[in-house]
Task: structure prediction
Amino acid sequence: MHSKLSLRDLSVGNQRVLVRVDFNVPLSEQGQIVDDTRIVEALPTIRYLLEHDAKVILLAHLGRPKTGTSQALETNKKYSLAPVAKHLESLLGLPVQFSPECIGPVAKSAISSMKNGTILLLENVRFHQEEESNDPSFAAALGELGDLYVNDAFGAAHRAHASTAGITRHIRQSAMGFLMEKEMKYLQVELTTPEHPFLVILGGSKVSDKIGVIKALMTKADTFLIGGAMAYTFLKATGIETARSRVEVDKIDLAKELLEEARKQSIRFLLPIDCIATQTIEPGVPTKNVTLSPLSGISEGWEGVDIGLETRLLYAQEIAHAKTILWNGPVGIFEIPDFSGGTRALAEAIAGNRNALSIIGGGDSVTAVKQFGLANLMSFLSTGGGASLELIEGKELPGIAALTDLRAF
Ligand code: ADP
Ligand code: 3PG
Ligand code: MG
Result:
């Protein structure tokens, strides 16, 4: 499975090593870094390279800046990586140089004056539209800047962009960084032969986002616990009244098929038996705990925003005896504290099972776990959103596929 070259296989001393990192961190209105996890998680790779006398040149993107318009330059200021260089400097306790251009003479001159064991961050690669179109000459211009390439940007590994994929055609050797390896270990290797019982908790906003994950895990999981908005499409498919809850009408038939498939394969596919319902999605509004059955569904004008109290107990029991737990997607609108109880209850149950390997799939689920202060009680939290979903689905990630094969090495 690990058929790609690893950072440890490279001779990095005295080499210009281009490292693609995912520094796409959330920023406040004032431009402050709200969560620096992705930067912190890239430190082992960066420190290893510095300690092994490499010249470390970081490539990264931030946000989705507009390119090619006259206003682009002005609006793009907020997507500059300059503040990230400052933050990295404080984390490393070392100076981090910053180049306001990621290719061309400015970048080249900054690199030419680098000494071994020093670090430089290049400006947002997405300031060039050629990054996302994976333009070969832009990839070549990036490749020219280094001798070796390391991809540690797991969160962006599902993108076939110039700095994540195209660049490897223009560089001698390309390897996985330590964060990339860690993500692969938990989201791929551990899930290939999971310890049973293997429990999968799926929530979040849409069934359509998670179909691939459900299908891929049907052959491996013993039990699914369904929550979040996606639960209502399944509940509707079983004939339960969901009123104003978010249902994907065009996915009801598919939900029926998935439920039938689970039944055939003797997989336990549990849906909420009750939910918290409200008439308006706002903090402090009246709510009620509604039992979900064909005889008693949600009343007109109400909508399900969290799993109910009975469901929390039922799901917590399942969690307590699992050996492997994979969780993707909050089971309620956790951003509003009144509707976060179900997500919190499940996070606490996972934290309480010290015998299980617990893997949180990334995106909003990771945000929720961190918000509850339970992150350090989980075995692994992914730094990827879309990338973690695609990996679990069994898709090949372009950012990994492009790296040097071990056998070619
Ligand atoms: P992840 O990023 O973990 O994969 P998703 O992006 O699929 O998760 O979904 C997260 C979103 O789902 C959250 O913003 C949350 O508010 C929303 N959500 C969860 N439950 C409900 C619900 N019952 N109704 C509407 N939205 C919900
Ligand atoms: C992410 O934040 O999911 C990655 O950095 C990829 O960003 P993108 O969705 O803008 O490509
Ligand atoms: Mg999300």
In short: The chain has 15 helices and 15 strands. Residues 7-180+397-408 form a domain with the Rossmann fold fold (CATH 3.40.50.1260).
